[in-house]
Amino acid sequence: MAALSGSVLLVDDDEQYLDLVSTILERAGYRTTTASSGEEALALARSGRPALVVLEVKLPGMAGYEVCRELKDAYGEGFPVIFVSGVRTEPFDRAAGLLVGADDYLVKPFDVDEFMARIRKHIAPGTNAAPRTEPLMSALTPREREVLGLLADGLDQSEIADRLVITQKTVSTHIQHVLEKLGVHSRAQAVAVAHRYGLSRPD
Description:
The protein is an alpha/beta fold. The protein has helices at residues 15-27, 38-47, 64-75, 91-99, 112-122, 134-138, 142-152, 157-164, 168-182, 187-196; strands at 8-11, 32-35, 52-55, 81-85, 104-107.
């Protein structure tokens, strides 16, 4: 499959991992392209510049470190590359990855909220891979937007129930609907979306 310009390019020889991470990113609104080797990744990157590359260090054939350097040489030091490795997990491995030019380094298994936060940090605003969340936000009911706004302001479930004079069970139902409509998996991810689009506390 040809790389789509602006997509997140995932590079790993573990098909289950690629399926999982693709699903996580696509539910958050990102487009993804996958490669199972360094050579395939570079070929895809040449067919259309990705917005970001998520790269395993240990790959069949060309090592992830070499892939990182070739991507940086081709697109410049500002081109974002994140290593996510389940094999090279020691501090010196992470240091080596950063020294060859990676912008970030995570080890498997990773926390999904942390992973998504780092993805958002390194993707430039305005790229084609930016989450298409605004239409999803408009799908929220006024009450769901209120609940999300209060979550974003740091209130817990009981405080939101008191503020809106509803039961905690009702708050929980609203939160579940918010997660489903935004295509996210946790309250932390929903709050990140709220802050991204400036959803403030209702008056």
